[in-house]
Amino acid sequence: MPRVPTLKISKSSLLNLAMIAALIAVAVVGQRFSPLLLPKADVTGIAAPGCDLQRQACAATFGEGGRLQLSITPRPIPYLQPLRIEVSVSGVEARKVEVDFAGASMNMGYNRSQLVASPGGAYRGETSLPVCVSGSMTWVATVIVETERQRIAVPFRFDTGR
Question: What's the CATH code, domain 43-160?
Fold first, then answer.
């Protein structure tokens, strides 16, 4: 009876194939879910120049007649303590409002809070900021407003730890 050749695959070849498959899976999942982490805005708003979130609420305009105001308390804004966030929106019908906190010059991880609708166009929530090892940090709090047809992003910059 003729002998049938067998295919021998080494353990290292199997490990290499498994690693390649894992990298492809990570790339596909990352590409699929990247809009959740880094949403693209259809409209970008502009914060009022000179406004300091450490001292007061700040307003911004976007689109044609859209306006929002962001307030973070307590002031000055501390690390590792509960922060109350309030966003009021006018000029658009918001379906969802979130605030994303990111370090301006250092990756501080995912820190996004979805706010809950309150009467009068206000959205409220709580979060806290992680401690920065450098002691001071410039933050970008981006308010993300989703409507039926568009996503609006309004960045506000502020400093902590100074």
Answer: 2.60.40.10
Task: Break the chain down into helix, strand, coil percent, rounded to 5.
Answer: 20, 40, 40
Nearest to 109 by CA among 125, 127, 123, 96: 127
Q: Is 145 helix (H, G, I), strand (E, B) or coil?
A: strand
CA 81 – CA 103 distance, rounded (Å): 17
Task: With beta carbons less than 8 A apart as the criterion, state whether 142 and 53 touch.
Answer: no
The CA distance from 122 to 110, in Å, is 24
pLDDT digits (tens, 9 = 90+) for 12-49: 777 777 777 776 766 555 555 544 555 577 888 989 99
User: Which element (helix H / strand E) includes 102?
Assistant: strand 96-103
Q: Which residues pair with 100 in a beta bridge?
A: 112, 142
* C-alpha span between 133 and 150 (Å, rounded): 37
The sign one gets for the Cα dihedral 132, 56, 110, 43 is negative
Which pTM value belongs to this model? Answer: 0.74
